[in-house]
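ENTRY TYPE: paired fold submission
RECORD: A
CONTENT: sequence, then structure tokens
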Amino acid sequence: MRDKQDPLANIWQQQTVSIPDIAELEKRCRKLQWQHRFFYSMDVVGFLVALGTSVWAYERLKWFGQIWMGVMMILLLVFTLYVGWLRRHALRIMRSSTDDYLHKLRAQFNNNIKLAQLTKTSIWMALLALVIFYFGGWFFDTIAPEKLLKKIALSSVIFAVLIPSAWYWAHKREQKFKNEIANLNDMLK
């Protein structure tokens, strides 16, 4: 028999373990759930407003504008459904164990990073869609030149303000959720 104890075993036994606070995790999950419910309802309302605007403007547009608007509405529907799919973890959070809360938070934070990256990409895609619309209107002569110049000028001003601010906001959110994942990983150590 050994009378001598291993010094590493003593050190191992003296370590403290930090246990995640279940009440804090539950509170964060509920807050995240309500935020995503609000954001997704705004996504759906945005789609419905775009759809209503498209229906209202359909008769005023020439053939190229009608086709392009139809294509954009289909893409916007797919985009809205994809955003809902990315929000799925937060939309379905229920009372559960600590591990489940941590898993759902981490999964949703990963999806939030994807949402921020999607926002940054979609800003440029919206600009490209508008350029194609204007170019098609000019090329197929479906938009009068004087109207086209006014629309380009107005769109340029709007996009000059909107693109940098929206991109910056999405970039900050992406960084925030990367930090949140790092904090959750630290909590598990």
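RECORD: B
CONTENT: sequence, then structure tokens
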Amino acid sequence: MPQNPAYKQLLTLITARSLQWLRGRIEQMPMAPLPGSPAITDLANIAVVANICSGFRGSEAPLQTFLRSRFTSSFIETFILDFQCSPASSIYPGSALLRFLPSQDLIQILPGARPLPERLALSDLSCRNLLAEAAAFLRRPVPEECLTDDTIDTYARVLGLCYRFGEERPRFDDVRTYGDAYANCLRFADWAQRKGHLVPLAQMGFCLCLIDPDHDIAPMLADVISSQRPDGSFPTRLGFGTADQDGAALQPTLAALAALQIATHGRWHGLPPSVPLAA
């Protein structure tokens, strides 16, 4: 997306403020979360965005450094245990983390009858049937009356996993899939903007840039950026506010951070080989 140095500096400043808020949240989390602890999902989601940040930067992101003391091998074991025990009918919120776990850990988890995002996370996309299923999902129009934050969240996860969050471009059999997904993202972003929902708006901005790296999401980011709180976090609703926030701000802050990273760096530059994948 086109941008000038002053705008890029603004994005960098907004990013730095959100990173400091996330650092505080990470430092408050237990060193060894117990199975079933909300901290498991929180740390998993933070780890996904940390890897996204590093991938677009082309170097280790500060968020990975913040995670290093909490994201241990014992955490991975607990995460896998929780994932294996999660109901197959629901989407485990941290399932995208599977893309960043070492392959020997993935061997412990079989796809089975799991939701589409989880099967995508466990796959290397070599299965044409799975990619075709994902393409059909992305092409399917969703009536506006059926749109919810959860619906768009699932869509964003599926699209993000197909693109490996920016690392590669999926090879859909039907080229119309890209255009249909792009049109859906535009509709979902418009819905989120009209409803004042920050998370789906940030997610759709990220997804639009995955499909078209030259897409200008500055108008979407304007609403997101103006919503940042003085403590560096982002709220679930678009709009100005001055109150500091608690853990409920984690998801919107992570969604905003991912959108800021793709807007700042444009394209995936790759993770350095010396950085542990789960750090």
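NOTES ON RECORD B: Confidence is low (pLDDT under 50) at residues 274-279. Residues 145 and 191 are 10 Å apart (CA to CA).
STATUS: closed
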